[in-house]
Amino acid sequence: MSLNEVYITNTSSFFPNNPVSNDEMEEYLGYINDAPSRSKAIVLRNNGIKNRFYALTKEGVATHTNAEMTALAVKKLFEKNPDDIKSIELLSTGTSTPDQLMPSHGVMVHGWLPETNPIEVVSPAGVCCAGMHAFKYAYLATKAGEVQKSVATGSERFSISLLSANFEDEAKRLSELAADPYIGFEKEFLRWMLSDGSAAFQLSNKKNEQGISLKVEWMEGYSYANELEPCMYQGCEKGKDGSLKSYKDYEPHEIMNQSLLSIKQDVKLLSKNIVLYGGYGVKASLDKHGVKSEEIDYFLPHMSSEFFKDKIYHQLIANGTGIMWDKWFVNLSRVGNVGAASVYFMVDELFHSGKLKVGDKIYLLVPESGRFSYMYSLLTVC
Q1: Which of 168, 193, 214 is a domain's end point?
Q2: Among the three residues 186, 214, 242, which one is the final residue of a domain in this structure?
Q3: Is the pTM of this model over 0.85?
Q4: What does the alpha-carbon distance between residue 100 and residue 108 come to, in Å, rounded to a whole number?
Q5: Which residues contact 287 (CB under 8 A, 6 or more apart)?
C-alpha cells in the first residue's frame, strides 16, 4: 500500500480577550490571603513573558470554555470559505486542561461545530505533548489514506485553576498552624507561567494550489518515564518516593485543604532533567532521519520559560546538534506558555509571516515535564 504525503495547508490561532501584562496578572487571578505574591517578580524575571491571555474577566468570571476556544480556532481555518468546514473528516484535539473529565474534550469541541458532519473525533491526553499527539494522529490517518482532510488542535484553559480561591483554604490552614502562610513554590510558581488559548492545523493529502504548504516529513516521540519520576502533576499529591496519590484517594475536605486540584511542578527535578533529556531526543530524531542540524532553517522549541533558552542552545552544541540563534523562532514573551497549543502558535505565526520560502526546513521541539516526554517533527515549505 502506498502512503500519502501529508501537508499543513492552513493554520490558525485564537486568543481570548485582551493581552494581560505582568502588572495586571493579580487583578485577574486574585491575591492569596489579600497579599501580593512573594514569588511573582522572581518567576517573571526568569521566564521572560511580557503578555499572556486569560479566558477570564477581572472578576474571575469565565468568558470561554476550552472547547469553545478550540472550536473558534477551527472555524478560523475556514473563515475565507466557511462551507469548506464540511470537508473535515477527522478532528484530533490535544489539551491538558479539558473542561470536564467526561465527555472527552474532542466531542465537546465537535459540539461547538454544528456546521460539520458526523466525523471521527480523537482526544489525546497528556500535558504539552498532547497537542503534538493530536497532530500525529491526524498526520498518520491522512498518510494512511483513512481520511483526505483532517484538523488537529492544541488548546489550554489554565487560568480558572490559577485563581486565588483555589489556594486560600490551604494558605489559611498553614497560617492557623503558625506555619509560612504562603503556598509552596511548586504550586505558586505556575501561576505566573501559564496562559490560555487555542490553535489549529488543517491537514490534507494535497498541497495548496496557491500559496505555501508545509509538508510533514516525519514526527517522533520519546518518553523517559522509565527512568524519571513525575515532575508536573494535577489532581494528586506527590510522595517522597516519587509516587503519586490520586485525589480520588483523599477525603473531599482534603482535596480543597491541600490544593490537590492546583497544578504543581517539581522545580528542582525540572531544572535538572528537562533540557538534558530533550537534547537526547533531538539527536535521536535527527540521526534516525539522516538530518543534520545545520540543514534546519527554522527551529521552533516550545519553552515554558526563557530561563531555559541558553541551556537548550548549549546542550544542543554539546550533543553535536547545535542550531545557531538566527534560526530560532519563538513567541513566548508575546503569547505566554499555553502548553499543548504553544507549538501551534509558533507554526501559525511563521506560516502567515511572509518569511517562508519553498525548501525551508522547520524543526519542532515540544518537551513535556509531566514525566519527561518529548515530541519532534520536521516540516518542509512547499
Answers
A1: 214
A2: 214
A3: yes
A4: 10
A5: none
